[in-house]
Structure formats: C-alpha cells, structure tokens
Amino acid sequence: MPPLADDLRSSFNPRVAEALAKATVAAPFPSLLGLQLVEQGPGHLRCKLEIGDKHKSGIGLVHGGVLTAMVDHVLSIVVYPHVEVGKWVATLDMAMNYLAPVREGEILATAEILSMRRRVAVVRIELHNVHAPGGEPELVAAATGTVYVKDAPQGQSSRGS
Fold this sequence. Notes:
Strand order of the largest sheet: 1-2-4-5-6-3
Number of strands: 6
CATH architecture: Roll
CATH superfamily: Hotdog Thioesterase
Distance between the termini: 27 Å
CATH class: Alpha Beta
Helix content: 25-40%
Shape: globular
C-alpha cells in the first residue's frame, strides 16, 4: 500500500481546491465569520480569520464557538479535493482543546489529513494566533475530527472537474 502522502498527491483536485477558496469567501456562514482560505495542497490547508468585535463574547474574548466553527469548516474542506466531484463530506465528530484565550489578532488554522479511506477521513487542526501579544504566534486551540464521505444523491452524476 502506498504511503498516505502519495495517495493524497494523486487524488488532489486543484480545481476543487480553487472553488473551495472562492466558496469560503462567498458562502453565507464562512463569510459571516470572515474566513479566508490561504493555501491548500494535497492533504493540507491553511485558513485565516482576522479577529473583530463580532467574534467576541461579553467579556472581550473570542467566543469558543467561533474557533469551533473555524475548525469544522477546515475539517471538511481539506478533504473535499480528494473525493469524487458530487460526493459530499460531513463531520462525524471532532474533539476541540482550547489552550489559550484570544482577545485580538489573526487566527491561522492549519489542517492536515492523518488518514484517508474510501468513506472516512481523520484530520488534525491547529489554531495559532499569529499576531498574539509578544509577537510570537501562539497555539490557542488544537482539534482532531472525523468526516464521512457520502455518495452523491441518486440521479446526480459524480463525474465532473
């Protein structure tokens, strides 16, 4: 069996990755948060979020739901370029660890596929505040998640770009 990196290189569809970058900015929920896809390649991606007042709780910290939503978004979009067009990816579970509070800055999510099977993929995600006080990027959350790859609905072609 070939190593995972070789499988991911051969299954990566750059046209799907490009479409996901545009969709992240245009889709209602990711655009509401302000998510932007920075980089995507075989088995990995980086997505950023500039922190603003709309992301904060009543005590001035970024709400944990914002970080969780960011993780959930990148969890699926790192996998989409590796599945047939027409199939869809749904989160089965994710475990989130909050490591440091965030007041301001820019969150950079880095996602890496750890395992990719026909129906299930496992992904690790780290969130860093790249403009943290003190100047050094700070790891603020880490997560792992599992997604399920579902077939296209009956009558919908799974062929495409």
